[in-house]
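My hope is that you will study the record closing this message with an eye to the fold:
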Amino acid sequence: MATSAVSGVNSISISSTISGFNNFKTKNPNLLLGRRRVLLFNWRIRSFYVSNVASDQKQKTKDSSSDEGFTMDVFQTDSTSVLSSIKYHAEFTPSFSPEKFELPKAYYATAESVRDMLIINWNASYEFYEKMNVKQAYYLSMEFLQGRALLNAIGNLGLNGPYADALTKLGYSLEDVARQEPDAALGNGGLGRLASCFLDSMATLNYPAWGYGLRYRYGLFKQLITKDGQEEVAENWLEMGNPWEIVRNDISYPVKFYGEVIEGTDGRKEWVGGEDITAVAYDVPIPGYKTKTTINLRLWSTKLAAEAFDLRAFNEGDHAKAYEAQKKAEKICYILYPGDESLEGKTLRLKQQYTLCSASLQDIIARFERRSGNTVNWDQFPEKVAVQMNDTHPTLCIPELLRILMDVKGLSWKQAWEITQRTVAYTNHTVLPEALEKWSFTLLGELLPRHVEIIAMIDEELLHTILAEYGTEDLDLLQEKLNQMRILDNVEIPSSVLELLIKSEENTVDADKGEEQKGEEQQLQEEGKDDSKDEKTDAVKAETTNEEDETEVKKVEVEDPQAKIKRIFGPHPNRPQVVHMANLCVVSGHAVNGVAEIHSEIVKKEVFNEFYELWPEKFQNKTNGVTPRRWLSFCNPELSEIITKWTGSDDWLLNTEKLAELRKFADNEELHSEWRKAKRNNKMKVVSLIKEKTGYVVSPDAMFDVQIKRIHEYKRQLLNIFGIVYRYKKMKEMIPEERKEKFVPRVCIFGGKAFATYVQAKRIVKFITDVGATVNHDPEIGDLLKVVFVPDYNVSVAEVLIPGSELSQHISTAGMEASGTSNMKFSMNGCLLIGTLDGANVEIREEVGEDNFFLFGAQAHEIAGLRKERAEGKFVPDPRFEEVKAFVRTGVFGPYNYEELMGSLEGNEGYGRADYFLVGKDFPEYIECQDKVDEAYRDQKKWTKMSILNTAGSSKFSSDRTIHQYARDIWRIEPVELP
């Protein structure tokens, strides 16, 4: 680590080295002691005008302690001025002691310097949106996986050169300073990273949009890899503070839980009593690339008012009681996705979701009212506001918006319902039934009593729609539709619907009686035509009469229509009462979108088929995308320079379709040479990362084969490691010469977190690390095979691994991965993919070319049949698959008992058995496909061409393209470029 080599930098008087700074400080002491200064930044591309928020004066301000006014000199963003700004923050906004200027302090001072410029543009964007009263989109998400902000912000501002030069003069490199920044622990996986990519694109494309989330104190968890596998400890990303956030102490909203609902004399409902907390806003500026637009990510933190602190209990020594309410409030924003195995965990998750929704909706409505001026026309709300729910976590914004409109603003149900439906939209991210959120009706009713009433009203609206669509003649069909579509599952049918069903059944019974009576009359008429009957006929008649008498008895026993309807449609005592959040989203929103073409088709045909048949116009596809700035330009600068050189400009950063021009040079030997050199340099960075994180030393001459994503059975890290075990076993059975001839050297890299309570996923992590411990220390194998699990996978780790990867595995069971975004990042960086026809893999393969994608495995439409075949005992496992399981059971990878893990792949039925994710079915094709990978890698000329064509084919997968589609088709907002 470099130490400061600049004279005076280690001194408390850092600013004395700035030309004219002391004189300025003397004349304006009060101004400099304030954090916000009025500056004019004159940048090469544009000028920034700072607005003093307190006085709302522009360009010029007057020192309150002096009669003399002053205008600050223009502050140029060359390296000298940047250096001055960094030094200023090191002295006047210190987070560290003044004696030293070491790397952590350098990072904070640099970040605060950059933040000054972001605040200028943030203020300008905000004020312009307010002035123009534009329609604004609001993106609600429980996760925003941002990664480090410094290099991204500097890159978007186009100031890499000045900041690099300034820090060099201070004795540090920009890269070393940037590495001091912890990743913001606000997300877990693809859902949160997608949200962050979207924010980048919204700002870059000048769309008026904000993100809303929660400010988690500890985030998910920090992952440690020990001899016991994965261990979780609290993430400490806020331990030293966060220089990017701006706390808005003047922006806070009350959030209520529990209590009761009372009805006033005017019929308006009021939610009273219960537990009250306060949500406080923290803003994080999000800069666009080469634009003035800087949008906002508003994060909510929770607290309790000071007067709620029980001072008497504290003074009496009952400290726990004194802090109880405060802790309840604060813990809402402690952890992302707290374990929900217990009732307390479920309650906390619901509190988190409602806090996000309630605070955000109150904020959005307050902004709408302020912009509306003296006259608020609520019918115009959807013309000014678009709310996007990122998966089902923000679903409670639907009943919350209705509650505010009806109970607080006094709108009728009809008007509020219409406004809500025109305002909100829903993005579905999963087809897994367990991931489609269902909450206990009882728990939701206790925690949010008014919202359950409102959800019941929405459910009633839905039931009337279903009755109108399907009629009441076929009760079996109707029951099937209600079971599939109701929001409130196994909850009493509303009386208005019950009455219709009973009336319909009564009419049916009456009609049946009428028909029966008519038939009897006809029969009597026929009998009257022939009075001469013999004894035999009389006997038959007597017998018939007896049968009719029995029929009359049976008629008396016909079930009462009301009892019949209640029996068919009433709640079952042995089934839980739940609220289907995804159904609530589909019913209440004006748009529902999947995130890849195949996923959207599954959503329409399977997940929400009944709703699609009812409202086909609601359903859309919006294939995910990633920002090319962070995921190619900033994380892979060497390859980016090559792309710019060969495409003729850096226009591809804003128009990724330009990447397709690389196809013209796919066979060019000069490009091949440059391409391979860039990849090699990136691989060396991966070598260093692996040594730093794990202690393993790997060869850069081996193929780098990577699978980095959340650990889950459907993502099939187990298939990958089984393939590695098979490879290792075969190597051990060969002599050294045969090994080298048969196998290409590989470094197999894993990364990802298993949820803390997901036992099977944690077993998989343990298994991977045990295989690595055995293989990596086997002298017979050497550099021919290494297995590495990189701990605590996050955005910053991905930014190193992805540029240095050569093969990336996206091998989920077909039909189970909604889209994926890491596949897009790998392909964009020239990495080849091996995978199934799942999620965005389908579209990536189409774009890069079938010959440049390694495909294997069953397809989505086959999965149900294969599972049925398995359940019927017809599946015959491949001998190679059985060989791997038997090899593991020998204990070659250590004493840990993997019987539960192996057992999950065996049997034909049962929870946790029967190989639900079809690892055994796809295993033979997978290892045969890996042989094709080896063959292709041996021909480096062919491999390099394939790599180039992957980058060229990734043009479709920019988040800019995706955001344009959201803005046009769902939000209906226009870009607003600042003057």
The first strand starts at residue 40 and ends at 42. Confidence is low (pLDDT under 50) at residues 1-75.
